[in-house]
Amino acid sequence: MMCVGLLALLPAAPAAAKGAADAVEGGALPPDRSELRQLVNRVSLEHGVDPKLVDALVRVESSYDPGAISRRGAMGLMQLMPDTANRLDVEDPFNPEENVRAGVKEFSRLVDRYAGNLQLALAAYNAGEGAVARYRGIPPYNETRNYVSRILTLYTGKPFRLAGTYRARPVRMVRDREGNAVITNVSASASPSTTRAAMLGGRGPLRGGFGSTD
């Protein structure tokens, strides 16, 4: 479980500092934010997750700092806890590629587990699945509630208030007949042309890749 969210990040710990020093000694420069966002975009598309959503998650988790460490020991861009990193066979949690691949894989699993309810998936990423099960919803932790609201605000581009009825299908990537990539949350059985028409028409369950909040 991530269990980090909006916790203040500590200065780089020895492991992170050593990794940065090794990179400098080896003549390599750490990737800049633009390169990291490209990485997030690429990995998200590979997993069929909306890159904009993962971008919002990374911005809140670590502000795109590959060497970030939380007070609870969460590491890297997507703030992987040691147990999570071990479960996902991450050798170096401060390696951006490894960290993002593991984080996106974990978040995608949570989106599937909660049937596309992004509130619950984000709450579980932050506070753990056990807490979500215990409270039968988003835990009453200020950190977690603020975390969910902040990410969904960044994702939707407008203030997001928590609501018990919120539900959205998992967003995924498809291609229309012209070969254009389309971010959608309509069912997998729907044709790409139907998906495209729904997006262009601005009606139905598809709104900018986010979907209905009804």
CATH fold call of the largest domain: Lysozyme
Helix content: 40-55%
Strand order of the largest sheet: 1-2
Question: How many beta-strand segments?
Answer: 4
The amount of beta strand, in percent, is: 5-15%
Q: Major sheet, described briefly?
A: 2 strands, antiparallel
Sketch the topology as an H/E string, one letter per element.
Answer: EHHHEHHHHHEEH
Mean pLDDT: 76
CATH class of the largest domain: Mainly Alpha
Helical stretch tally: 9
CATH architecture of the largest domain: Orthogonal Bundle
What does the radius of gyration come to?
18 Å
* Unreliable parts: 4-27, 194-214
Helical/strand content category: mainly alpha
Overall body shape: globular
The overall number of domains is 2
N→C terminal distance = 29 Å
Write up what this structure looks like:
The chain has 214 residues and is mainly alpha-helical. The longest helix has 18 residues. α2 crosses α3, α5 packs across α6 and α6 crosses α7. The chain is built from nine helices and four strands; from the N terminus they run βαααβαααααββα. The C terminus is likely disordered. The protein has two domains: 148 residues, Lysozyme, CATH 1.10.530; 44 residues, no CATH class.
